[in-house]
Amino acid sequence: MVTWAKAHRAEIAAAKAKAGALAETPKVVSALPDPMVMVSMDHLPLKLTGVDATLLVQQDFPLSGVLGNKKASAEADARAAGADVGRVALDVEVEALVAYLMVVERERMQAVLDEQIATAKAIVEATLARLEGGTGSAGDVVRARLDVARLTSERTAVDAELVAAKGMLNATLARSVEASVPETALTVPTSEPPDNPKLVTLAIAKRPELTVMKFKLEKAQADIAVMKSMYNPMAFVRTGPSYTMADGPGVMLMVGVSVPLWREKLGAGVAEATQMSTMVDAETAAMRKMIEGEVASARGAVVAAKIRFETTRDKLVPIARQAVSLQLASYGTGQAPLVSVLDSLAMLRMTRMEQVVSEIRLAITWVKLGRAVGTPRVAVPS
């Protein structure tokens, strides 16, 4: 599933296209300026008896490493875009996994309601039998049928929610929303998440956002070198054939350099590039700190969700099932009213649904913890 999403989502294709486009930029910025071709008519007598003319080709040459520095800046920018593809892919994975978990949740809710409807119908049969035997009341029958009707209606609503969840899952997979969804399966990790220091170390190594910032810092430093290169002059060479009426054909040559006179402007450019580098460096430090907090928060959420799920599964649901069994037995012997049985069934239904919700929330917290460290995975079909 995740593999399909990464192969077909347009967001990833767009990020790859952007990286591909920026990968061509170094070739553009590192090339010499285009040569200029000029034709001059230096002297044309009024009698039109001849002409002094020149055909010139001019090529500019930087007398510094500015072209190499521009290339380094563009290459760093391209590498940053390439690393950003990883960030987009991680976000796509998270979206697909969360959408998949919503489908799993709705399907498990269906199973809970099917179980409850079957029990409620059995209770209706029991109330009818007691009514025919003269030990029950018509009110109990109506009350039991009301519970069946309520559960059946909820089951129909969950069916509609499942259709919506499948449509969203297909959308996150870049498929038609009407496409069929394969049989679902889910395995949630049962172990405790690793300690925070280990998770933070993993996040620092794997998070593509930090890789992007690393290359942005390289670009900012290359930009400083570009601006410092502007202090050096630009040379130009003009040459080409010439012709004069007096001496006939010849060759013309001119060499010159620019004069970087406006030092305040150049200094401002260097200062601007230096401040941008400082900004990127500060943003990187801030991002590292936020990642540490994000990892700690995500790990705490996993631990809390694990406690809630295990408490519901191992304590609340068994107690609720026991309560239903006791109430059914008491009702069968006439020692408990029907309302007590229905209340116990409602409590079982609530705890069973809570179990489903808490397991899905646990899975989602694992996904978010994985996203925080750069590997958002739970055990789902590929």
* Strand residues, percent: 5-15%
Shape: elongated
What name is given to the CATH topology? Outer membrane efflux proteins (OEP)
Can you say what the CATH homologous superfamily is?
Answer: Outer membrane efflux proteins (OEP)
Spatial arrangement of strands, main beta sheet: 1-2-3-4
Task: Report on the biggest sheet.
Answer: 4 strands, antiparallel
Description:
The protein is of the alpha+beta class. It has one domain: Up-down Bundle (Outer membrane efflux proteins (OEP)), CATH 1.20.1600. It contains eight helices and four strands, in the order ααββααααββαα. A four-stranded antiparallel beta sheet has the order 1-2-3-4, with no helix packed on it. A hairpin with a 3-residue loop joins β3 and β4. α5 packs across α7. The longest helix has 70 residues. The mean pLDDT is 91.
Describe, in short, the structure shown.
The chain has 382 residues and is of the alpha+beta class.
